[in-house]
Amino acid sequence: MLAFFSLVMYLALSSPLRYERLKGSFKGNLRFDKDYISIDETKYNISEIKKIEIDNLDIRGKWVNMTLDFEPKRSNGVKNFIKLYLKTGDIIEINFLQTKNHNVKTCKEEFISYYDQNKISWNNLGWVVDVKKENIVK
Prior knowledge:
By secondary structure, the protein is α+β, with helices and mostly antiparallel strands. It has three helices and six strands, in the order H-E-E-E-E-E-E-H-H.
């Protein structure tokens, strides 16, 4: 009985410190530049891209589960995605990890450049890098 109680207390107290389980593995890098987006070893020139969609709300360590159970309470930070719609008709979609230090919001100038070239919508730009219309100079 004492062992069971100890296990329950351990799970209850440690769950806020635990991260969601990662289903898969990390491979490659994602890099944003004004002229291209690089995924692993492949560079996609902005001129080859018709449209960009991105969702970057998930950050490693973000609270995701506030219920009173034994599940991990912190995000693993990989529920982010980018979709590149290429002019050839191909669609490139990947998920990526974000942390507080490695975050898409640090690429604000690149995303504004994509917006200026009509590659990303205004709503998606505002969502991704927190820009306001009055801060954009054309």
